[in-house]
Description:
By secondary structure, this protein is an alpha+beta fold. It is built from 9 helices and 12 strands. The protein is 52% helix and 18% strand. A hairpin with a 4-residue loop joins strand 3 and strand 4. One of its GO terms (molecular function) is phosphoprotein phosphatase activity.
Amino acid sequence: MYKLKNFKTIIIIGLTAIISILIVQLLWTKQAYNLEEKKFSQKVHIALLEVAKKLYEGINHDFPTDTPVKKIANDYYVVNIDNDFQPEILEHYLKTEFSRFNINTDFEYAMYNCQSDEMVYGDYISVTNEKPSKINVHFPKHKNLVYYFAIRFPNETSYLFASLRFWFVLSFALVLILLIYVYSIYTIIQQKKYSELQRDFINNMTHEFKTPLSSILLASNYLQKNEKIGTDDKLNNYTKIIINQTKKLNNHIEKILDIAKTDDDIMKLDKKKINAHQLISDVIEDIQIKNEAVTIKNNIAHNIEILADEFHFTNILYNLIDNSIKYCNQIPIIEISSHEEKNSIIFECKDNGIGVPNTNLQEIFDKFYRVPNIENNKQITGFGLGLFYVKKICDKHQWKISAKNNTPTGLIISLMISKK
C-alpha cells in the first residue's frame, strides 16, 4: 500500500511538472510572437518612411513633421505623400527598402486616383515570383488624403509563424512528451490492474483446488491402509495411481502459487550462507528415491558457500533436475558442477536429454513457454512455468542464468552467482 501511494505521488508530480513546463513554454511562445509582430511592424514603418522620403526628393515641399505612415490594421498600412508619383517608381522604392530591411514576404500595393476618386490596384509582389491565381483585395479609400498609397501584407501571419519555427517545434515536442507520458502511465496502471486480477484469480483458483485435493489425498491414504485394498493388487495399484497423481497435481498448484508470489513486489528473500554441496546432495538424494534409474553426479566442491534463500534455491535445483529427467529419451545422466571465474561462482547442470533448438534457447525462460514441435512434448506434463520461476528467483538474487546445448546431446543450464 505504501509503495502504491508513492507510485501515485510520483505520477502526479511528474504530470504536474510536464504540464507546468508546457504552459510556460506556450506563454513564452505567445510572448515571442507578439515581440516578432511588433518588430515586423517597426521594420515596415521605417521602410515605408524611407520610401516616402525618396518620393519627396526633387520637389519643393518640405517633408512633413508628422509621420506620413499610418497603420490601419495588422497587415495594412497607408502612406500620405501629398504629391503626385508614378507607380513604377513607387514599386522600385518599395522593393529596394523592403529588401534592405530584410522584409522577405509577399506584399501588394494600391494608389489613390484623383480622377476616378478610388483606389487603383497596383501589383502583387512575390518574393518567390509566384503570384496567386486570383487576387480579390479591397483597398478602402480614406478621407482627407489625396496623394497616398496603401500596402497590404497578405501572408504576414504565416511569415511570423515561420520566423518562430523553433518555438513551435519545441512546444510540439513538449506536447508529444506529455502525451507519451500520459499514455505510458495509463498503460502501467492497466497492466498493474491486470496483474492484480491475474494474481487474485490464481490465488483463489489454487486455494479452491487444494481443498478438494487434500480431501482426495487423505481419503486415498485411508484406502491404501485398508486390509481389503492391500490384498487386492488391482485396487492397491489404483489407489497408488490416485495418490501419485494427486501429489503431482498438488505440486503443479504449488508451482503456480510460487509464480504468483514472484510477480508480487512485496516478496522478500530470506538470504543466508548455505553450503551448496550439502544442499545439492540432499536434493539429489530426495530425487533419486523417486527416480532410481536416474544418475545424478554432484561435482560441487565441499567448501563452497553461497548467500541465498535456501527455500527458493532448493526449488531451483528441483526444477532444473526435474526438467533434465522429463526431457530425456534415454536413461538420464545429470551432472551438477561448479567452477570459479573472477568474482563469481558458476554452477552448471548438464544432462543427456533431447536439448532445445538454438532458435528457441532465448525463450525457454518465458512464462508458459513450451518449445513447439519438441520430441514427446505433448506427453510431458507441465505448464511451462518451471524455468520461468527459476529465472524470476535468479533475478531476485541478482544472479545471471543462461542455457546452451550440450555436445553431442542434452542441455547445459549455467548459473552465475557473485561472491560478494
